[in-house]
Amino acid sequence: MKIFWFSGTGNSLWTAKKLAYAAKAELVNIADTRDMDTVTVEDDAVGFVFPTYWGDIPRPAKEFLLKLRAPKDTWFFAVMTSAGGDSGVSFLCIDRALYAQGQKLSLARNITMPGNLLKASAKNEKAILKGTEQELKDILWDVFHRTADFKSENKGPGKRFVQQTPFRSPNALIKRFRITEDCDGCGICAQLCPTGNITVTDGKAVHGKNCANCYACRHWCPKAATVPVARMFGKRPQYHHPSIRVKDFLKK
Ligand SMILES: Cc1cc2nc3c(=O)[nH]c(=O)nc-3n(C[C@H](O)[C@H](O)[C@H](O)COP(=O)(O)O)c2cc1C
Ligand code: SF4
Ligand code: SF4
Q1: I need a surface site. Which of 48, 69, 209, 220 has the fewest CB within 10 A?
Q2: 117, 129, 213, 226: residue to mutate for ligand 1 pocket, most atoms within 8 A of CB
Q3: How far is the CA of 177 from the centre of ligand 3 (A)?
Q4: What's the pLDDT tens digit per position in 117-155?
Q5: Whole-prediction pTM value?
Q6: C-alpha closest to that of 7 among 219, 223, 232
Q7: Measured distance CA(190)–CA(188) in Å, rounded
Q8: Are 215 and 116 within 8 A, CB to CB?
Q9: Residue 93 Cβ < 6 Å to ligand 1
Q10: Residue 225 and residue 237: Cα distance in Å, rounded?
Q11: Does ligand 1 come within 6 angstroms of the Cβ of 52?
């Protein structure tokens, strides 16, 4: 079994790691596949663990799914982490991408995690994290039993599959960050950025235009020097999953 993951602040990575450990699966960071034209697997079971962004899956996850090639009878499952426990159209998106290869999503489960975007998300963090252990046990039962209760729409991805989101233009609102004078050029944000959107130039972080809104740069910066331009997204104190460290994101 392979489990492909995407994560900004570690919630999805923690979930993927727990699942992989219990199911003896291999973990793959989809950021490491970004330069590949196709991603071919030979496994009979493949999982995806992604965060929910605006009721949808992250853009790099969509790009990755379109490149994935797996054996005909592969059993696919997906776990979405989100602050509200509702991942919107995420599973339909995953199923549509698989449909293009004559496959389908079989198991789809949500897991509620601390939110990493809004100020309100900082509430009840400990209680939410405690709840995830039980949610994960239930999901593992389904993974072990290869439950197949997801209802496919039997539809493929449309032409605008990658760009389309359930909300009109969230990127315009949230993609920009400013770098404060506290930046010391340590490069952690550049190492973590899943799209390679950050470079360190003249001792300061510089952002390009290929942001996937994962918020890793904002939350992992040791100097809190990456600040969202939209003030409402700057109010949430820095967060990362308490069991995840920067090194967990980096290729061994
Ligand atoms: C840009 C952005 C959009 C988000 N949109 C939603 C959303 O629509 N619904 C929701 O419940 N949580 C939303 N969240 C919260 C994340 O889905 C949640 O905190 C997730 O567990 C983060 O996973 P990660 O730590 O693996 O990055 C959003 C977070 C970000 C950064
Ligand atoms: S992690 Fe923070 S301090 Fe380090 S380069 Fe990025 S913005 Fe600057
Ligand atoms: S620039 Fe920041 S928010 Fe955008 S993809 Fe890179 S790490 Fe994530």
Answers
A1: 209
A2: 117
A3: 9
A4: 988 877 789 999 999 999 999 999 999 999 999 999 999
A5: 0.96
A6: 219
A7: 5
A8: yes
A9: no
A10: 13
A11: yes
**pLDDT tens across 63-113, in order?**
999 999 999 999 999 999 999 999 999 999 999 999 999 999 999 999 999
Q: CA 23, CA 137: separation in Å to the nearest integer?
A: 12
Instruction: Give the C-alpha separation, 52 to 56, whole Å.
Output: 6
pLDDT of residue 21 exceeding 90, the answer is yes
Q: Is the CB of 58 under 6 A from ligand 3?
A: no
**Would you say the CB of residue 226 lies under 6 angstroms from ligand 3?**
no
Q: What is the pLDDT of residue 18?
A: 97
The two tokens of residue 220 are 């992992």
| 74 Cα: distance to centroid of ligand 2 (angstroms) | 41
* E strand or H helix that includes residue 226: strand 226-228
The CA distance from 221 to 16, in Å, is 23
User: What domains does the chain contain, in order, with CATH numbers?
Assistant: 2-144 (3.40.50.360), 170-245 (3.30.70.20)
Q: What is the pLDDT of residues 197-243, one digit of tens each?
A: 999 999 999 999 889 999 999 999 999 999 999 888 888 999 999 99
